[in-house]
Amino acid sequence: MPSQSTATEEFWSKAMGVFAAHQIKTEPDDLANWGTDWTKSFRVDPLAIVFPESIDQIVHLVKRAPEWGVALVPSGGRTGLSGGAVAPNQEIVVSLDRMNKILAFHETDKIVHCQAGLVTLQLQAFAIEHGLFYPVDFSSSGSSQIGGNIATNAGGIRVIRYGMTRRWVAGLTVVTGTGEVLKLNHGLIKNATGYDLRHLFVGSEGTLGIVVEAEMRLIPQPEEQQVMVLAISDLDRILDVLRAFQSTVELSAFEFFSELALQKVLAHRDVPRPFSNASPFYALLEYDANQFEVANETFERVLEAGSVVDGVVSQSLSQATALWALREGISESIASFTPYKNDISVRIGEVPGFLKDVDRIVTQHYPDLEVVWFGHIGDGNLHLNILKPAELAIDDFYQRCHEISPKLFSLIQNREGSISAEHGVGLLKRDFLNYSRSDEEIRLMRELKRVFDPYRILNPNKLITA
Amino acid sequence: MPSQSTATEEFWSKAMGVFAAHQIKTEPDDLANWGTDWTKSFRVDPLAIVFPESIDQIVHLVKRAPEWGVALVPSGGRTGLSGGAVAPNQEIVVSLDRMNKILAFHETDKIVHCQAGLVTLQLQAFAIEHGLFYPVDFSSSGSSQIGGNIATNAGGIRVIRYGMTRRWVAGLTVVTGTGEVLKLNHGLIKNATGYDLRHLFVGSEGTLGIVVEAEMRLIPQPEEQQVMVLAISDLDRILDVLRAFQSTVELSAFEFFSELALQKVLAHRDVPRPFSNASPFYALLEYDANQFEVANETFERVLEAGSVVDGVVSQSLSQATALWALREGISESIASFTPYKNDISVRIGEVPGFLKDVDRIVTQHYPDLEVVWFGHIGDGNLHLNILKPAELAIDDFYQRCHEISPKLFSLIQNREGSISAEHGVGLLKRDFLNYSRSDEEIRLMRELKRVFDPYRILNPNKLITA
After folding, report:
1. In Å, how far are A415, A463, B254, B405 from A381, measured between CA atoms?
2. Is there a smaller number of Cβ atoms within 10 Å at the N or the C end of chain B?
3. pTM (predicted TM-score)
4. Predicted ipTM?
């Protein structure tokens, strides 16, 4: 086996047939940067990073990869939390960073045709400039790219009203593992001409094809939004509160976080505590501001019923932003604790029993660790973050979490839930997939992988093993 | 080869191991009835019709079919328009008629878990009984079944607001071609655990698996709706009218029909002409009745601009129903003319040019035939119905239409449109699939078929040939 530097030299001599020198990076710092995502527990060891500037370059690379004997890791904004964009084994990272343009805007269709490397925030901004709205949003929207959103079917904070990324993908251009370019659906609303391959690529984590362009659908701008934060004393009452508001206002978000989550945000950011007294749990609601009267009535009702103990509501856009900061600041505020992130979901009706399940697991197995609860409870999605104590070595911490996770996953399986609600499978959940998918489903997924990527060059060993 | 009756006898002796006698039909009338759909131009020659009453029976049948040497045609309400449920070649028709129950209602999730044979209208009625709404609707909802809707990704009249059937499928149980039962997604909103096979089955026309159960999502009931019908003199102005209303009210429907379509309805039903003067084209709009003021203002604006020449608006539910009858009565009123149905779509922005394309084709190639135009123009979907003159033999008529279709399909291909917007491919469009899907897409579709149905027993030669 050649040494690293020989391998690198060999790669340069081959890659220069496809890329210009400025499109290739092999310096250690660059390999470390583009070779990983937001996870910290996986080996990072790419052979090189390439920055294609056209679909043709990607096609050439994919077609040559089998003879070169290298695998490819498609890479977007690298904000993933499951290691889907990590290159642990001398792969070539294919960064979409330089394919980040808006190619066309079909005004009547409200469709933006863009390259996969477009940053989510830029699509949101483009929409606003045109009096429109791109409704998928989450805390990493300033770095994440549309191609990555599609490859992971990104969700976020407004799924309760607008669904996942999938719903907004009107057309998709992908390069398959054989270097074929598929242009799927062309932005059509109605197209009943056989299997909708587009939907197979959404959420496939770069294992079936490289998303290179997309036609993303926008919608009219919503009304001004109002934000309400509620203090809740009892986990059991969360769903009562959701139901009460859902029957009276159209919710854009229904978020949940624990007192410990709030404490972490308050310690990290200069924001005031929303209520003078602490409560074990909080909910954040967002809805059209013109529904404020009925929202206030509903609040009075759940207060009287004892489902909530206090509430605060935004009276301006800046207040709304400040309340959102309590929820959106959580991930950032706990990042320094190297959290072990469980991203789990059940059907909404299963939420109360599921929260009790989780509470039991946490009390029994993590009594000595800090556990930060938050999530999109309106979608049945809970983020359970186990924080690493400063004195515990990271490997020991992860090993302990990995030992406990299957106990949690078993309870999720019993409720027909998902062990990865929106973070994807990548490397982190791959060996636990059977808790949410049957053996036959996993077998079929392997067969599908074989159809689209017969030479196994696209993101190998992510999501499923060969 | 055994004679028909020997084959039938042999089938009975084998099938009695799986089904009770009352679950099998082989009488000629029954074969003719359950062996076809709403199409009239395909050979109908099934071996038998079976009526399973459980998933187990379907699994047994699928597992034995290869050794019996028979293929299976899954069959729902048989309202299809592309021959997807036709049994032309001694297949066993697997009717879901007796698997038509609602199994559970998850109130918090607003999910109905039902068997595939549930009639669409019954799901709609169940929703209303529970203060909810199932938004997919079309003229065959009184006969069509949920399983068939899923297998064809049914669309209809409110797609502009609520999307296709796909959006409402929260979970799916299918039996694959190897007799494996897949329970997909379990009603979850967020589930990022690999390839979403559910979406592969939606619109697969029974070629990858038999849909046996589904979890369908309901929504809160919408506001009362108002209906407006507009008279339009110029095809070019249709899209101006759509844009004007879309920017002011939230449309639930934007339908289009021609004067000839209206004439056919008036001749067939006892309904009055909406305007004293005939216009070449009409549009029907539906929107929340509480938006009537801004709708009226918009009408005044498009009237002044000359985009419409007249308008009428519903003042009650019965008036709204009467106006809808003008549009919904079209299919029924032209049924006796054995129409050759083109169901085509383009991106909405392409509609004006596309309508001109179609006009040119019609003028050039069908000058002597009646052509009824209608469709869901708000979704880019046009139904172009060529009526058979009474004196022309059906085979000659179809042959002539089949000769002209490719000219139309070429123009659709140039605009990246779909040769089957919502009717599916079945037998009717199979040999024209290349106008909307690339060679590589069709090759991949064949590979997927092989993965899910390796013995080729599920609806063979529908959608794609082997």
Report:
1. 13, 20, 36, 49
2. N
3. 0.96
4. 0.95
